[in-house]
Amino acid sequence: MNTCFPWGHEGRYNDATNALRRRFPGRVQKVSVDGGFTCPNRDGTLAVSGCSYCNNETFNPDYCREQGSIAEQLQEGMAFFSKKYPSMGFLAYFQAYSNTYAPLDVLRARYEEALAQSGILGLVLGTRPDCVDAQVLDLLAELSQRCYVMVEYGVESVNDTTLARIHRGHTFADTARAIEETARRSIPVGAHFILGLPGETRDDWLRQAEVVSGLPIDHLKLHQLQIVKRTALANEHRQYPERFHLFTPEEYLELVVDYLERLDPRIVVERFTSESPPELLIAPKWEGLRNYQFAHRVEKRLAERDSWQGKVLATA
Ligand code: SF4
């Protein structure tokens, strides 16, 4: 079969590499930067212990760990990638903690510092749905008039019982509202979900794909649940391992393919797997399986099933 799918290439799902090629003329890479923000679930506003799975040490690559300035981190990150592809463009990826959680003048100064670096084409801002309000979104809409700006929300689950159980400190209604308000300003929206959270079932995850499809989400990241050291979830896993079902790669692959079949084909899928640093990861150990390797397996499995992203939606 040699089909060109709705996303304009022959891949069986709407992948991020091709989406970036459609958006930008040349090769583009995200460069992580620690903007020095915190999070209301860490600083005592909502809680101090954070979400039960969170260890922020997993977020940052080496060039962020020394906490140089935003400019220094970006310069170092861009130099690293430019060795291989000298003409590459970059997006400053504010990933750790909640990168819209500060007074407006602080946000503006930190974003502008990033945008002032030669080679930076735009911003990707990871944050919580309860850390954006109309003023913050208006600032981002203003910036998006002159550069690419994406807001990437940690959503994790569409189920309020789960969100309470993992101590997110917000509801799914908060998430839906933030996504709608962001999209209403024509700002691209990313969303991050964890598949495998305790208390949820395979049916919940497949229903999630349909809920996601009904929201104005542009980019999606899926992650298998990983138990990471120095988290509340690690303590719970040690005491009550029977509460957890950690996927094998094979089982997760089948789930992801079923999920993709229920996902609107307009949504770009950026990732399927987490890759927590081995020294922090407790379980499951997938022997270094990288996201790009898993993505190849997804393509292969979709082809074996003669399936593609949104197939079930299209035939429902
Ligand atoms: S996952 Fe995000 S929102 Fe939750 S505690 Fe960590 S930084 Fe805060």
Structure description:
It is a single chain. This protein has one domain: Aldolase class I (TIM Barrel). The chain is 37% helix and 16% strand. It contains 12 helices and 9 strands. The strands form 2 sheets. The chain has a 7-stranded parallel β-sheet with strand order 1-2-3-4-5-6-8. The chain has a two-stranded antiparallel sheet with strand order 7-9. Helix 4 links the parallel strand 2 (89-94) and strand 3 (120-127). The longest helix has 14 residues, at 291-304. Residues 39, 41-42, 50-51, 54, 56, 97-98, 128, 154 line the site of iron/sulfur cluster. Iron/sulfur cluster is lined by residues 39, 41-42, 50-51, 54, 56, 97-98, 128, 154.
Outline:
By secondary structure, the protein is an alpha/beta fold. Helix content is 37%, strand content 16%.
Please tally the β strands and state the result: 9
As a percent range, the share of helical residues equals 25-40%
Shape: globular
Helix/strand/pairing category = alpha/beta
* CATH evolutionary superfamily: Aldolase class I
CATH overall fold name? TIM Barrel
Compute the number of structural domains: 1
Largest sheet properties: 7 strands, parallel
Oligomerization: single chain
The overall pLDDT, averaged over residues, is: 93
